[in-house]
Design brief:
heterodimer, A: about 350 residues, mainly alpha, three-stranded mixed beta sheet, two-stranded antiparallel sheet, B: Arc Repressor Mutant, subunit A, three-stranded antiparallel beta sheet, 4 strands, globular
Chain lengths: ~350, ~140
Amino acid sequence: MTIGEFSVALYAIFWIVRINGFVRRSREPLMRGAEWFFDVPVPAGFYAGAGRAILRRYRLRLLVPFAIDVPIAAAIFAWGNVAMLNALIVALSVAIHAGHAIAVDRAEREARRFEDRHRAVPSAGLGVSLATRRVRDYSHPAIEALVALLAVVTFAWLAARYLGSSPRPDAGYLFGTPVLLLYLQAGMLYAKWVAIEWRMPLPREGAARYRAVREIARKHLLALIDWSRVVAAVSFLYWPMVVSAAPEEHAAVVGLWLVLWTVAGIGGTVWAEIRRKRLKAVLARTRPVRLPDLLGQPALAGWLVCFQPGIPLLVLKGARGYSLNIAHRLSLLGGAYLAGFAALLWLIRFAGH
Amino acid sequence: MAYTYTIHDQAEGAGAMFLSIDTADPRPIYQQVADGIKELIARGELGQGAALPPVRQLAADLGVNLNTIAAAYRELQKEGLISIAHGAGSVVTSRRAVERTQDQLLRPLRAALTDLVLSGLPASRIESLVLRELRGAGKGGK
């Protein structure tokens, strides 16, 4: 298997997974039955009337990433640089999740105009858990040790190769790929931090039950991130194995790794899908409750972004949709991470020349 | 890290402590937070050495300004119930608030009793309510 074949295979798998994801997401409004539209209680016959158009618009919004993807993928294939498909997959993954969150928010806003007021239960107050949430509370020592060990082994292996070669190989070429993988590992750790810090407002009534369900959802996401971290950590070994291989073995080593990644990708996707289905069943057990907004977020949140240093919310719900609080430390860190990533790519490219 | 999908309501309810914020309560939110933590300390549910969540986490979960929770923690610190160490978080230090005169302590009780009387409740009902609250609040006492 070559890198190009791997990219095309990955893109094909991505399409299959996306179709499954689209079908699943398009059914989500009816997750609690025909008397609900997501978390909005709706009157009987809603889906035969106004609800039909709202549902159709919601589903059309889910198709936007497909509309973006097709021409770009066609251009990549026409250009012949199929390795670019990997970057397209990453960009589309972000677009799909962000687009889904926006589509849900919009659809719920539209459906709220038809809300069944007798069944809508606004909570009289908020409950909040006093349990602390730190990264170490959600970290498995064995996983952290494995990630650290693989990173150390990789850099030690490459350092030994660098120091033991005469003439010395180009350091940028030798260390560029593992440094990039290490940086991606840090990015996944950042994602984990965001998932742990994600706020958990609870209704005052039945706070313990709601907390239990939301913690399960949080741990589901963290399990996915940790799985990705382990795969990425094992991938540290790819580069030293490739550069140490004899020229005649080079293609076989690369091919073996590409097969391994494909198997890990398919296995991980199936595992995640099974867990997601179980999670959905658990989430459906709690009745949605509208929580009071103590801040008055619509007045504070601008369109897409806002700057609120005193507000510890990463995302605010504004009058027109979600708004990223760019004064939040996680926003600042995320921005710095992306800038660092761009700089690192440039450096590796520069060093490669 | 236990990635389980089973909901253990009893275990979760027993292990986790909760604060309640009532939107209809005339007390400011910081006061409700401080009073809620005081109540948990008085009942012995938050023992000496128990860590409180960081200001940022509590403020985010409630969806309030950072200063609101910081004010609540400062009040608890002023009363000698918690200690705040930058970087180490906030910890319950004592079950006893700083010394106050009997008159200072009785003032809020008098105000609450006045409200109950003015609400038209009979004295016997007020007495039973006070005793019930006292039993609840004194749970953690020696």
